[in-house]
Amino acid sequence: MVGILRILSFILLLTCIFVSLSVGLAAAARDRKFTWEISYQHKSLDCYKKLAVAINGLTPGPTISAEQGDRIIVNVTNNLFMENVAIHWHGIRQRGTPWSDGTDGVSQCAIMPGETYTYEFVVDRAGTFMYHSHYGLQREAGLYGLITVSLPVGVSEPFSYDFDREIILSDWYHNTTYETATDLASIPFLWVGEPQSLLINGRGNYSCSGLAASVCNSTNPECLPSNLTVISGKTYRLRIASLTSLSALSFQIEDHEMTVVEADGHYVEPFVVNNLYIYSGETYSVLVTANQNSSRNYWTTINVVSRQPNTPNGIAIFNYDPIDYQKLPPTNPPPGPLWNDTKSQVNQSRAIKARQGFIVTPPKKPDRVIVLLNTQNTIDGYVRWSLNNVSHTLPSTPLLIAIKENMTGVFDPNPPPDDNDSANYDIYSVANNTNSVSSSSIYRLQFNSTVDIILQNANTMTANVSESHPWHLHGHDFWVLGYGEGKFNLSRDTETYNLADPIMKNTVPLHPYGWTALRFKADNPGVWLFHCHIEAHFFLGMLVVFESGVEQVGDIPLSNYGCGQTKSFIKP
Amino acid sequence: MVGILRILSFILLLTCIFVSLSVGLAAAARDRKFTWEISYQHKSLDCYKKLAVAINGLTPGPTISAEQGDRIIVNVTNNLFMENVAIHWHGIRQRGTPWSDGTDGVSQCAIMPGETYTYEFVVDRAGTFMYHSHYGLQREAGLYGLITVSLPVGVSEPFSYDFDREIILSDWYHNTTYETATDLASIPFLWVGEPQSLLINGRGNYSCSGLAASVCNSTNPECLPSNLTVISGKTYRLRIASLTSLSALSFQIEDHEMTVVEADGHYVEPFVVNNLYIYSGETYSVLVTANQNSSRNYWTTINVVSRQPNTPNGIAIFNYDPIDYQKLPPTNPPPGPLWNDTKSQVNQSRAIKARQGFIVTPPKKPDRVIVLLNTQNTIDGYVRWSLNNVSHTLPSTPLLIAIKENMTGVFDPNPPPDDNDSANYDIYSVANNTNSVSSSSIYRLQFNSTVDIILQNANTMTANVSESHPWHLHGHDFWVLGYGEGKFNLSRDTETYNLADPIMKNTVPLHPYGWTALRFKADNPGVWLFHCHIEAHFFLGMLVVFESGVEQVGDIPLSNYGCGQTKSFIKP
C-alpha cells in the first residue's frame, strides 16, 4: 500500500512537474521590445562610399529573433532629417493588427522625421521572415533585415542541424533613391539599370579602379567578403532571405550540396540542389553539411538570373575553421547557372512542395478567379507597369483608414478588372498600351472567400523580352497551385493544379512568358497589398490592393493617422 | 445760373469719377493664385549635374509678383517622393495668418509627399521679399525665389527708374542635403565647407576639368552666365536677394555705381556704393544707370566675404543692348573687396538708414532686453551653435499649435536665459563650452511690449575666428539701432543707438567680434523664429523662438496639423 502510494505520489509529482513545465512553456510567449533609430550613415558596403539608411547604425539592420507566439514591439524613431519612413514585416500576417503592416498608403501614415512610432504584432508562426522599408524606394537604400522565429521550447523542427546561420542577399546601387525615383518618373524614362554590386550580408566588392580612395577604397574593411565559418562535419541551417531591389539570384556554395527544407516559413519536402534560385522577397532555409576538404575554404557566390547581368557575381567565404576566414579559396568562384536558363528556374519552382505531415490542404474550388496580365505600358508618355492594363497608384491617405472610416474621395470606387480579355491577348507581342490607365481602384474580396490569382506574364515594350516578377502578398500565405509556360488556359491548366501538396508561400516568381497560379483564403480582416517585389516595378504601378473584412478591424491607433485626408478627423 | 450749374455738374462728375477710381483702386487688391508642384529635377546650374528641388520644374522658383494688399494663395503639391516640404515667405509678416509662415516645427506640420497644402496670406507692404524652404537643409537644394510687391496704382516710389530687374544670389553645393546633414550631425563633425559655386540667377560655372561630360559639362547651356541686358542711358532698379546657404557676398557691376534705395522692403536714404555687401536673407534694391561705354559688355560679379573664400567668384554679364549677351567683356572681372575687410562691411551696414519722409520712429525705451551671445559649442561631443550656451531644438509638434492648444510636453517650459553673464564673457577667447546645453525652451514676450535684442558675437571653437551671422526675424521688422566692435556695454553703448532714423529690416548681419542691436514691438500674435540664416548654423541650433499674443490667434487650419503630438486631436 505504501509502495502504491509512493508510486502514485511519484506519478503525481511527475504530472505536476509536467503541468508546470507546460504552463511554463505557454507562458514563454512574451513581449520582445526593440528600440530602433533610423538614420542615414556613410557606408562602404561594396567599397564605394555612399549614404545608406541604417537601423541603430547598422545596414542591413539587426535580426529580430523571437519565439513563436511572442509579441514584437518595435519603437521606431525617424532621424532621417527630411525623409519619412515605414517598415513592413514581410511574412508576418498581422492577424488582428493590420495597422502594423508598415505599408505607406495602405496601413499607415509614414513616420515623419523626429517622430517615434510603435509597431506591435505577434509572430504566430515559426520560420524565417524579413522586414524592410515600404516607403518610396527606401528599401533600396538598405533599410532591411531578418526576422527569425523559433518553435516553442520542446517542439522540434522535422529536420536536424547543428547550427543556425543567417544570410541576407541584396543588390546595391550607387545612385541615391532620389536620383533613381526622379529618373523613373521622368520623360524621357531613365531605367535604374542593373545594380553596381551584389551583397552577401551587406558586403560586396565594387571595382574601385580610377576612383579616389575617399570615394572608393578596395581595402576598406567594411567591404571585405563576408564569411560563413563552419566546423568540419557539422550541419548548418542557412536562413537565406533575398532583399534585392531588382535582381533574381542564384545562390550556391562551391562543392557543397544544399537541402531545401523551408520556404517563406513553411516546411518544404526536402530536395537537394547545387544552386538555390531565390527571388526578391523570398526566404529559404537550406541544410548544408561541412563535408568537404577541411584544409581549404570554399566560395559562396550569388549571380543574377532572369535578366541579362551587368553586375559582377557576389562572393563570400565558406570558411572551414580554423583556417583564416580571409584566405581565399584556391579555385575560381563557380560562375553559377546561365542567367537565361528559365527551364531550370521553373523546375526548381515546381520542386517546392509542402513537407509530408505538414500539408495544409487548400479549398477545392475558388469562389473567384482574378487573372492579372503583367505588362509594361506607357501612360501619358510615362513608362509604367500594369496589371490588366491598369497601373495602380496608392493614395496619400492610408486605405485601411479610408475604408474603415467610410471616407470618400480617397480611391476610385470602381473596381479594377478581374480579367482583361486574357483569352485573346498575345503574350508574345510587344505591349501596345491599348487602353492603359492609372488608377487608385482596389479589389474588394468577400470575407473568408477563396480567391485564385492567375499571374500571366507577357512581353514588355521591348521585342522578345519578358521579365520575371516576384509577387508578394501581404497579410496571408497562399497556396502555389502551379507554374506554366506560355498562355494560361482557364479550362485546361486548372486541371493541372497541385491540390495535393502545394507549398504555402507569401512570395512567388512569375517566370518570363509564363504563368503562376495561386489560391488564398481572404480570412484576414484588413487591406493588403499584392505586388511585384521589384522596387522600381512597384513604384511604377505593379501592385494591386485587396480589401476584405475591414468591418471586423479593431480600433486603428491614432498614430497611424495624420496624413492626407485623415486630417479631417482632427478636432482641436 | 446755368453756367454755375454746369460747373457744379462738372465738379460733381469729376468727384464721381474720382470716387469711382478710388473705389476701383481699393478694390484692386485681389487674390493671386499659384499652383506649384515641388519635385526633384536633374539640373546643371553650375555645369555639374545634380538633383535640385524645383517648383514647376524651375530652380530657382518662379517670382511671385503682386500688388500691395493682394492676397497670395499658393497651392503647393509635394512630389518629392519621400521628402516633406515647408515654404517660408521671408519678409512677409503674416499678420493674422501666423499659420502660413511655413516653418516646420513652429507654424505647421511639413507637407508630406502626395499632399497639397495651401498657403494664404496678404502682402501688406510693397517691397522686395523672398520665399524659400524652411525644412531641414532643403533650401540648400534650390527651393527658393523672389516675391516682389508693387505699390498700388497711383502711388509712386520716392525714386525713379526705367525698368525693374530681379537678381537672386545663391551658393551651390554638390553634396546632397542628406550627405550634408549626416556630416553635420555626426561624430566626428564634418563641416559642409565652402560652396562649390556661387550662382547669379541660378547660374554658376564650376570647373569640369577631369570629370566626365555626363557629370559635368562646361558647354551645357544651363550654366551659361546669366545676363542682365540694359539699354544705354536707362536706369534700372535691381531687386537683389541673397538666398545663400552660407556665404556673405559682395555684389558689384564693373565700372557702374549703384545707389541703394531699399532694404528688406523699406526705403533707404540713398547712398552710392561700388559694391553691395549682402548677407543671406537680405534683399536690396539698387539703382544703376547704364551710363558707360555701350559698345562693350561689363562684368557683374559676386565674391565671398566674411569667410576665407575657397569658391570662385560668381559672374554674370551686364549686357549693353544690342551687343551679343554672350560676348565676354574685354576686361578681367573685378576681384571684389577683400574677404576680411570687416571695417568696410560694418561701415556699409551703418550707412543703411531709413529714408527721410519714411522714418518710422522706434519706441524710446525697451520693456525688455535680451542679450544673445553667439557661440559655437560641443554638446555630448556633437558640434552645435548656441545662444547664451543654449543650442535650440525645434520639436516635431508645431509650437504654434502646442501653445495655442495648451499642450504639455512639447517644449521645455523653462525659458532660456535673457543674458549669460555677458559682462564677464571674454569674446576673444576660444569658446570653452561651459554649461552648454540643448533645449526646446522658448522666449515668451508680453504682447505689444518693446524688446531689444543685443546680438553679441564671440570667438568660435577655433582660435582667432569669429564668424558673421545674418540674423532673421519672422513675423516682424525690427529697427536696427546700431553696430559695434568688441564687447557690448549695456550702459555705454545704448547711448549710441540710432533712434532718429534707424532702418527697419527683417535680416541683419552680426559682424565678427562685433555686436548688433535691434528693437522690435512684439505686436504680431503668433510664434516666431529668430535665427541665423546660415542654414547649417540654424540646423545646429542657432535659433530662438519668440511667442507673443498666441491667445489672439484665430483658428489654425486643420491642414497644419497631423504630425507629432497634434495626432492627439484625431477623433475618428
UniProtKB/TrEMBL annotation, chains A, B:
Cofactor: Cu cation
Record note on quaternary structure: Dimer.
Record carries keyword Disulfide bond: yes
EC numbers for this chain: 1.10.3.3
Catalytic activity, reaction form: 4 L-ascorbate + O2 = 4 monodehydro-L-ascorbate radical + 2 H2O
NCBIfam families in UniProt: ascorbase (TIGR03388)
Enzyme class: oxidoreductase
Family that this chain belongs to: Belongs to the multicopper oxidase family.
Species of provenance: Corchorus olitorius
Signal peptide residue numbers: 1-28
Keyword tags: Copper, Disulfide bond, Glycoprotein, Metal-binding, Oxidoreductase, Repeat, Secreted, Signal
Name used for this protein in its record: L-ascorbate oxidase
